[in-house]
Design a protein that fits this description.
6 copies of one chain form a homohexamer.
Chain A (H helix, E strand, L loop, with lengths): L7 E2 L3 H5 L2 H5 L1 E2 L4 H6 L4 E2 L3 E6 L5 H14 L4 E5 L4 H10 L5 H5 L3 E5 L1 H5 L18 H12 L6 E5 L13 H15 L3 E7 L18 E10 L2 E11 L8 E7 L3 E4 L38
Parallel strand pairs in A: 4-8, 4-9, 5-6, 5-7, 7-8
Antiparallel strand pairs in A: 2-3, 9-10, 10-11, 11-12
Chain lengths: 298, 298, 298, 298, 298, 298
């Protein structure tokens, strides 16, 4: 293939049938409720985005995804951008989860971005002119590859991607987003959870281009209701998964973490039908044994 | 014609009467409901846009358009921008559609843009400075021409055009959009489906200039309704087609894919009349035998 | 007059009384309903704007203005920017209108801008760097003058002006708009219909500066009403014309094209009075015999 | 005073007491309704702004201000920016007003800006590169001074100021606006009416900085009300004038032009009191004989 | 202190206890209603902002602050940016207030910024190229210092600050605002009233950074209410003052000027309690004799 | 670690378990109500943000945090950006709090940024050209380190961070915010309160990227309710703390300062359950003795 080419011809038949997702099935998200309504969780080898304004629970979601990996014996890489590793460990502890044994056992590898930001003025008093501080996404990918490639991690968490990506409305954001997803999926063979901090109004209205390239987008919200705020989770997009389109209330509690509050009304369907719709009674055939569960018969 | 000219005099009479659409009729969209309300589907040789925010079903729409081509024996070219070909095949399989035989038989040609984005930092550790990553739309058109010209495809799908087009509000977006449509329609003799990812609020309010140059625009939405989300399809624009102006609810299900939920109230008319409008009883004459079906007599 | 002057003293008395509009009266818009409520249609020699988002019916409006010219024996120039001439002809045919005889008879001159946009990459594979593609409005006016000056057209249609004008919010848009209108009205002696594609929300809120310089602005809209969309026409501005200020529902149908749905409530007045307003009974005198019809006596 | 100074010390006592407005009283606006609610019209020697979106009646307002000057025997200068002088004359005629005798008698001096814009490409085919077309406001003021200084006009109309001013949100708009008003008021001894075309949403929300420097702002609106549009006038600001703060409905009709529809509820007061407010019964003393009329005693 | 330092260590104890406000108490705002609800008016030596769209009464507020100074025998400096001094005098006269004796007696010093703007094109015909017209805020402060330092003014009014400050959303606006306030408060020992013209929507939503650095912000509004407009004053911020948080209706009338319409519901408290709140009956102790009055006992 | 590295491998086990928060527990916020609902106040060694528009009470919140430090015998550093130290002292006095003894005793160290802004034009008349006035955040951090490092402060207050940070929507704001938090937490061992002035609409909608990097965000609002304004506090985010998600009304009064108005409905839980939710009766186990209190048993 010519280096200048924009398009490339289709891969051979073998490549097509040998795709990762089909072979590896699904992995638990760490949130039982979410596993239930997605026929088992995230597709193996794919990338998912958890978005929301600060304080909506993205880091706790990440922790639960990490805990699920521990439960399944997976190695995991946790890239700390927003917090230091010790703060992640402390937050986990405040929820009743002890990560230290797993860190000691080499099950969790923390990669820390804090030094990149703190390696700053205070140390060298006589040198305080502004160096470029934009993170080069390619340099980030090289470092990630260097530390993670031989670790054979099954799960990768980046909390959050904001400091390593151009902003929502920058024209180069779409290209960088496509590069990030394709690079992670091609060179690291793991299921990835990215978090995204929404800084412009609610996450419902702010759409980062990366949402077009990941296999699923879960948006966490705080919805005002007469002076109080409900926690709500919305599956904006889930590739190759039969799932309802409603918003799901949840709570966050010690020990249990994120917990769905009630059984979803229309579990197991892409479209939440109206109650008096005749088609509700139709029994659908199982599509593929492994990946899409038998649909509910009512 | 002078190379500097902006305008060109009218083509001769033969060219005018020999237009593609009239000769070739319409092709199925792959969605029976849509074929029903558009007198047979898309106009041959024209370009259509399916727009919507991530997760509204644009890729599934594309797959159905592709499946319809298989059913009619057409050769199709599928340009993968958002996903890799193997992921497209997997999504199809999760819906119960097996594309692999058609790929093997040479009925579907996947053109993959992923390598353009992944051919990146991770490979060459010592070279990570940012090169320009904007896709040159003319280079894209050259590549498309190179791979597709001799394939005699009847259908072309580009999912999605965002990474090869300037953004909605860039001043050069309109010119690039005009170039894309005119180049495809003039050099590749196929009916084309373009998808467009809306990243700014709902697709209802974001209008990309390309909507002025394609022959039809179908907008997919998720409409909130007391915490639940309805899937809705809206035919914003359909050239040379008698069609109602209402929003259509639909569901996505394995095997059937996108399915219109109920019969449209005012099928077969450009304007949904009010019930007590006398003109509803007027019988309209057939306009042209092939392209506009007899209008309903009530 | 000094070339540097910004202002020029008033023209002599003869020029003032010899203005085109007074001598030539009005010409039919092609839409009976619109002719009825505007005392006969558009003012001769003036410029009008039809605006709306894609799919609201601007091209069909243009076609009807063209058909009205045919009916009155006028020569017309149709500048194709959004579509190719053959597509315009096909859309007309789908509505039951055959333009080909008139084209053959030299009654309609199509000027095509497509080649300007398609004269692109695909032809010369080895030359795909981006050339400037912005259309120079002065070059456009020179070409228009070259082809149209000796054709003695009575009607001019440009569908649409977007690609030849700076965008709504560019600071030079107002100056370019003033230039376009003044140049057409001064050098080509015809009544002109310009269409404008609204790309930012509904046309109701987006106001292009050209609206200040044309003699009339007609805005076409699709208004949502419980999941359905009504077609509505609004006369935002009509110079020297006594007209009501309400929105008018319309339908688009084969053969009849755009048709106003019901008689306007307050036809013939600039202000729609309230029913119990005493002044409704006042009989107004005819102002000038030819241009403003006798006002309704109730 | 040093040329570099930003501030200058107060003028002597004579200058302060000799201010134009006090000596010359008020002049009719041409709209009886408006004269009634402003104690006689505009302050002599001051500048007023009439703003509104295209089609709200700004040019007709300008014409009525011009007609009022004719009735009072004033010489007037009318600067045509949006239209040509012959179109202004024709619009007047369509309303039943014949301006030609006054033009012939030298009572009205039209200054035309059209040639500045039309002196363009079509004439010189071989020279179509874009020259700067931004109007230099200082050059405009020099030209205005050159033609108008010796004409001893009492009234000046500029319809509209948009093409000679930076846009609403440009940072230099405020400075240019201050310059325009101060230059006109200092060098030309006339009462001035400026019109301003609102291009961003309704004029209610778009505020051009010039509103801070003129002595009054009258905003014309079309207010939607169940599919119909009411014409409404709002006195956003009137310096040194006791006036109510309500919106006034009006109509436009031949012969009478702009006419207020009903007597204002709270004429003669800056604040529309609530009916049961005791202070309504207080009798206020006359402030100055000439400029503020006796306030209503209820 | 090093010239490069950003921070400086705390001042000595004497400086802290010797602060101006405590020694000088409060000065009347000129509006009795406002003095009543703020325990005596503005803090001596501090800076206050009156903001609002054009026509909301900022200049009349300024005049009343000036009149209050005259009543208390203060010398005042009035910086005219929006109007000429003679227009300020005339507006005062139209309200029944004669400023001329005080000007003659040297009690009021007008500093006029008009010449800076009018010193323009019309005078020198052969020199009309645009010079920079942005006002340098430091040059403004030097001039202000030059004219005002030896005048021993107790009150300073700048109507308005817009032309001497960067706009609301310019990044350097916050720094310039901090500089303006600190420079006035440090070098001129007077209580200062600044006005600010809101040009972007209502003042309620547009917040200029200077609001963070002044000791109080009073926003004037015109609030629409069924076609009529109420005048409303809102104390957005008042440092070191116990004041309620409600909006206050007011009227503007000759002689009395701005007058609060009714007694505030919750005078004397920072928070307007709900009627059935038990704490309403608690008697609070006086805090400091001079500055915070005894709170109401109910 | 290579200076070029973006990522760094996990710290050793000791570092992880030795994190500050766990060892030091929590410190009082100075607001009893807030301490009650957060299991004791702020986490030691962490950074918190108090945001709000001008006049919402951020400075009074800061003062109460300072007073709480005095009560606990802590040394505190107060960085004055918006006001001068003497104004802070005066505001405290107006609320009944005397800071001077503590300042004299060396318990409070004021660092003043005013000289940086006032060191301006007025002093040197012949030198008024604009020097760069943007505060270099690294220089700020060096100065802060220089004055504060040996003071062994337990509490740090910066009121406010706006003048030392890029604006909300500047692309480098996120990076600068990350640097500020990481530098303070790493080099100064204190609990930090930052205030942030919201200048774009209400603080509810404006989200500064720093909210992603601090351990808690408290937003203060003035909420309009029929012409009156309620003071409301909202805990948008609180790391490692079990807290309800409702808005809390509060009042500001002399002596008591900020006081929560009523007991929170759902104290002690991250999610405010609905009354008829069965899970309300479940008794949760204590998670860690020190940091998360026993949850309420109902």
């Amino acid at each position: 293939m010519n280096r200048e080419d924009v398009l490339e011809k289709q891969p051979g038949k073998d490549e097509l049938s040998g795709c990762r997702s089909e072979q590896n099935g699904r992995v638990s998200t760490g949130i039982k409720y979410l596993d239930d309504i997605t026929q088992g969780g995230f597709l193996c080898g794919r990338t998912y985005l958890v978005s929301g304004t600060p304080g909506t629970g993205k880091s706790i979601f990440s922790l639960q995804f990490l805990m699920a990996g521990l439960a399944e014996g997976d190695h995991s890489v946790y890239v700390c951008v927003n917090e230091r590793p010790e703060d992640v460990v402390f937050t986990a502890k405040s929820l009743g989860w002890d990560l230290e044994p797993a860190v000691s056992a080499g099950k969790i590898l923390f990669l820390d971005m804090s030094p990149f930001f703190s390696r700053s003025a205070v140390i060298n008093h006589n040198r305080y002119e502004r160096r470029g501080t934009d993170v080069n996404i390619r340099k980030f990918l090289i470092d990630l590859d260097k530390y993670a490639r031989n670790y054979s991690a099954k799960r990768l968490i980046i909390d959050s991607i904001n400091l390593i990506m151009p902003g929502t409305h920058e024209s180069r954001a779409a290209t960088a987003a496509r590069e990030l997803v394709i690079s992670i999926e091609q060179y690291l063979s793991c299921t990835t959870l990215l978090t995204f901090d929404c800084w412009k109004g609610s996450g419902k209205n702010e759409i980062h281009p990366i949402e077009s390239y990941v296999s699923g987008v879960i948006n966490l919200q705080l919805v005002e209701k007469s002076g109080c705020f409900d926690r709500v989770m919305w599956l904006k997009k889930v590739k190759a998964t039969v799932v309802g389109s409603e918003a799901h209330k949840f709570i966050i509690e010690p020990v249990d973490g994120i917990t769905g509050l009630r059984a979803p009304a229309a579990n197991g369907r892409l479209f939440a039908r109206e109650p008096n719709d005749d088609r509700n009674r139709i029994v659908r055939q199982e599509v593929t044994k492994e990946h899409t569960a038998v649909l509910v018969k009512e």
